[in-house]
Amino acid sequence: MANLLLRDRDAERVGINWASRFVQRQPLLKTVLSRKYDYQRALCEDPKIIRPWFDLIRNFTAKYGILTDDTYNFDETGFMMGQIQPHMVVTRSDRVGKPHVAQPGNREWATVIQGINALGWAVPPYLIVKGQYHLASWTHDNHLPLNWRIAVSKNGWTTNEIGLDWIKHFDQSTKTRTKGKYRLLVLDGHESHHSMEFESYCRDNDIKTLCMPPHSSHILQPLDVGVFGPLKKAYGRQIEHLMKARVTHITKEDFFPAFLEAFNASLTEENIQGVLEELDLFLWM
After folding, report:
1. How many Å is the Cα radius of gyration of the chain?
2. DSSP 8-state assignment for residue 78
3. Lesser CB count within 10 Å: N end or C end of the chain?
4. Is 17 left (phi over 0), alpha (psi -120 to 50) or beta?
5. Do residues 193 and 187 lie in contact, with contact meaning Cβ atoms separated by under 8 Å?
6. pLDDT at 207
7. What CATH number is given for 43-84+102-279 in this structure?
8. What is the pTM of this model?
9. Is pLDDT at 101 greater than 80 in this prediction?
């Protein structure tokens, strides 16, 4: 633009540093690094795409008489057992580069499937760890609540079989709190959430499901937006405490009590309600 204006005046082109110096002279301007953003996610922020989703929920709940008390959302997230979260540290003003913080070397993966209710309470979590056998000591020795569920898979990830077991866990955890005939479960498009067995179990147990629009979890999924982040930060703090106690390798026996502390600190009813209100996800009901 500057060169076009100068060309009309028969003046010389601006120099290579003109743009940066121009910004420095303007108190209302500053430079920042751009952030890569998935094109499909950007498209989903169009109100024309999001509005039909809320219309669908409104019509769906009206059709089946589903109450706010019986509305749920769930998602899953992964943890590296020995990973801590980046945090602010104080260093010398002349230091170059980012400071290093030691963390345990165990990069074993664990998955957490978590559900929340529209009123703000959390469904007991479902934990998946790598292994072949489930050990009863994981629950008893680590004082985990008896209504928590632990499963194993060859890599610590979700499978169709685990997805089916989770929906049974969800059913058992919420059936006694149901106020109406149907429960609504809002979910994503993961294969394990749409297997024939999963959908058949839902039909047989009066659980209605709705799938979020693709690539929209960053704005519609309350667990992604404001729950999993604080949970992982709280877990990272627990791992830091273990590091200070000279625990340099995080085992499953370390993971479970650390996760329990993080869960109790972050998935409070107050915190979940705050996220839901900020997101306005369930306020259409």
Report:
1. 24
2. E
3. N
4. alpha
5. yes
6. 98
7. 3.30.420.10
8. 0.75
9. no
